Amino acid sequence: MPINASPRYYAAELKYRKARSIEEKIEALKEMIREAPKHKGAENLLAQLRKRLAKLQAELERKSKKQASRFQEFSVAREAPLVVAIIGKTNSGKSALLNKLTGTHEKVSEFPFTTSKPVQGMIEWKGIKIQLVELPALVQDTIFQEKGPALFSVARICDLLMAVLDGTQPLEEQREFILEELKKANLGNKPILWIINKADLTKLSIDKKNELAVSALTEFNLDKIASKLWGLSNLMLIYLKKPKAKPEPFALEKKSTVRDLIEEVNESWLKKFKYARIWGKSVKFPGQQVGLEHVLAEGDQVELKLEK
User: Which of 80, 128, 183, 283 could form a disulfide with 278 if both were Cys (CB 3.0 to 4.6 A apart)?
Assistant: First the structure.
């Protein structure tokens, strides 16, 4: 204890003793050093505090580098308009499902925790790509595990979650477990498509807006997954009509306008825009002429008239 230390020093010392994280200990130590007496009798104390601070800072740097390495291992680039994270408990059949849907060759095993890092694949919905990202199995308190924050950082950037349940095990227990793990990671508001796998063993035939019974083994109902995902998304399908060519599909956010479509296709066309003609739900009659701010609807076909 330093001689004639101020109450502020003792308050900082108490803060250090109660600190749990490295960051909290570092801040408390810095405060102790600032408030410690600066006379000759306190030189040994200051040296000890500075040595302790340097040790903690080095430990924090090592921890940060290790965490950065984990996040890099879990890095996923967005490569499609709709990105979906596949989550679930171990042995739910996530890998087998991804393999059948996308043609990837992820290792499938009866042993738990076969998937150790994100595995990606692509499916299509009416010409629009949907990116699937299988994540390692969820465990109790996943967010607090070594790779938990990195795992959930991937789920966070995805638009939807596809939660795979083992149909041969109690469904509500699995559902509650997954929801609780998502809640701990502050991901409770993500839209979820619940996939009940192994229907070949259970004979389940559930088919709801956000719930579908499937079999990765027999491929039962796998052809419905893309449409289910699309239906839960905030996207709509718009077709751009071109002369002597098949209409080209584009994915836009719901309530997007003709302007948004042009910005997606070629922003320079805005300067040449004269009007657009629409065939679909957003107009009163086929081929109706509209302007840039016209709000589009799912399935609309749009023909753009540009100045030459």
Answer: 283
What Cα–Cα distance (Å) separates residue 185 from each residue in 21, 132, 161, 180, 193? 19, 20, 14, 9, 18
Q: How far is CA 21 from CA 115, 122, 133, 155, 185, in A?
A: 30, 41, 32, 26, 19
Helices 43-73, 22-35: crossing angle, 10 deg rounding:
160
Residue 140 has which token pair? 């109790």
Per-residue pLDDT tens for 218-263?
A: 999 999 999 999 999 999 999 999 888 999 999 999 999 999 999 9
What is the domain-level CATH number for residue 242?
3.10.20.30
Residue numbers of the domain that contains 175: 82-232
Q: What is the CATH number of the domain that holds 97?
A: 3.40.50.300
Name residues of the chain where pLDDT drops below 70.
1-3, 64-74, 105-115
Tell whether 166 and 101 lie within a shared domain. yes
Domain check: are 133 and 225 in the same one? yes
Q: Is residue 107 domain-resident?
A: yes
- Same structural domain, 105 and 226: yes
**CA–CA distances in Å: residue 256 to residues 78, 261, 292:** 21, 7, 10
Same domain, 58 and 29: yes
Burial class (CB in 10 A: 0-12, 13-18, 19+), 104: middle
Is this structure's pTM higher than 0.85?
no
